[in-house]
Specification:
Blueprint: E1 2-7, H1 11-22, E2 27-33, H2 36-46, E3 50-54, H3 62-69, E4 83-88, H4 94-101, E5 106-109, H5 114-125, E6 130-131, H6 133-144, H7 151-154, H8 162-172, H9 177-184, H10 188-201, H11 207-216
Parallel strand pairs: 1-2, 1-3, 3-4, 4-5, 5-6
């Protein structure tokens, strides 16, 4: 059973989300919260599997709440961290990017279909990341507007092999492991190995943060494409 706290400052939306999720056989809503501070308190008290977090709330916004919930040492069981799935009406802006950097494992738009929300909740609760295609496009546009990489962290890319860098670029495109395997003509197990190693080397939490890293480090430059169709920085 996936135990969830729903955090949204609009009672009607919060109740609707809770009713939708609670109707699934494998999901239980353990609490609702009307602001970020309450979300943090309920997460600490109840240790849910996941907090569905609105990014803009009073008292404490979703970014700070996410940062506190995903911080090292939060919660009773370090081997079962509480995960955060951000839910918002905004496609991508500085606040949403900040929430992902703060430790959120996924980002959903409030106009998503119910089936997609359920799929996202199950994926994030299982330890995976979730990024809608519309969100990936929004991230691309966000970093296209400020393409300079973060110089200090770019040195981390030297830890990656050429193949791992190639896999990172394909992750930034939004491809699944299966799609990456087909693109590179390798086995899916091989791709999983590459993904695990590049996340470890770059000290990243999951694929969502790999997408952010690919754009921020300058490995991917929007609008510049390599011969194989993958976005690449110019030489």
């Amino acid at each position: 059973m996936i135990r969830i706290v729903v955090a949204d400052d609009q009672p009607l939306i919060r109740s609707g989300l809770a009713m939708l999720l609670d109707s699934a056989d494998d999901i239980e809503i353990v609490a609702e919260a009307g602001d970020g501070a309450e979300a943090v308190a309920r997460a600490a008290e109840l240790q849910p599997d996941l907090v569905l977090m609105d990014v803009r709330m009073p008292v404490m916004d979703g970014v700070e709440a996410t940062r506190r919930i995903t911080a090292d040492g939060f919660g009773a069981d370090p081997d079962a961290p509480v995960k955060v799935l951000v839910l918002t009406t905004y496609h991508v802006d500085d606040t949403v990017v900040a929430a992902l950097r703060a430790g959120a494992s996924g980002f959903m738009l409030k106009d998503a279909a119910p089936a997609e929300l359920l799929a996202a909740v199950r994926a994030v609760a299982a330890g995976e990341a979730w990024l809608q295609p519309a969100v990936a496009r929004g991230l691309l546009a966000e970093f296209a507007a400020r393409p300079e990489p973060r110089a200090p962290e770019r040195a981390l890319l030297d830890r990656l092999t050429p193949r791992e860098q190639e896999v990172l670029v394909l992750i930034a495109e939004g491809l699944t492991n299966g799609e990456i395997a087909a693109r590179l003509v390798v086995g899916e197990v091989t791709v999983k190995t590459h993904v695990g190693r590049l996340l470890m080397k770059l000290e990243l939490r999951d694929r969502v943060h790999a997408v952010i890293a690919a754009y921020e480090y300058g490995l991917v430059v929007p609008g510049v494409r390599a011969a194989n169709g993958v976005d690449r920085p110019p030489p």
